[in-house]
């Protein structure tokens, strides 16, 4: 996230509201590759919204030079936590991993 926020800033972007993430965005692809390597799970639409909001929060923090503070990411994590949704029941199943194969 931090890398992508810094990239937006280095490209001269000034307004975090101009950051838009779609399902084909590089950041979505990178996160999906990291956390859903085998593409067993469909990416929910809400994920795109959370990524976009998180990217905006990182962008604003870096833009305001809060990244020089020791625990600058804590405030961002609090914002992200409010965007959490319930974990689907099928993730809680003891046979979940077997179902993916």
From TrEMBL:
<keyword id="KW-0805">Transcription regulation</keyword>
<keyword id="KW-0238">DNA-binding</keyword>
<keyword id="KW-0804">Transcription</keyword>
<feature type="domain" description="Prospero">
    <location>
        <begin position="1"/>
        <end position="101"/>
    </location>
</feature>
<keyword id="KW-0539">Nucleus</keyword>
<dbReference type="Pfam" id="PF05044">
    <property type="entry name" value="HPD"/>
</dbReference>
<protein>
    <recommendedName>
        <fullName>Prospero domain-containing protein</fullName>
    </recommendedName>
</protein>
<dbReference type="GO" id="GO:0000978">
    <property type="term" value="F:RNA polymerase II cis-regulatory region sequence-specific DNA binding"/>
</dbReference>
<dbReference type="InterPro" id="IPR039350">
    <property type="entry name" value="Prospero_homeodomain"/>
</dbReference>
<dbReference type="GO" id="GO:0048468">
    <property type="term" value="P:cell development"/>
</dbReference>
<dbReference type="InterPro" id="IPR023082">
    <property type="entry name" value="Homeo_prospero_dom"/>
</dbReference>
<dbReference type="GO" id="GO:0000981">
    <property type="term" value="F:DNA-binding transcription factor activity, RNA polymerase II-specific"/>
</dbReference>
<dbReference type="InterPro" id="IPR009057">
    <property type="entry name" value="Homeodomain-like_sf"/>
</dbReference>
<dbReference type="GO" id="GO:0007399">
    <property type="term" value="P:nervous system development"/>
</dbReference>
<dbReference type="GO" id="GO:0005634">
    <property type="term" value="C:nucleus"/>
</dbReference>
<dbReference type="InterPro" id="IPR037131">
    <property type="entry name" value="Homeo_prospero_dom_sf"/>
</dbReference>
<keyword id="KW-0371">Homeobox</keyword>
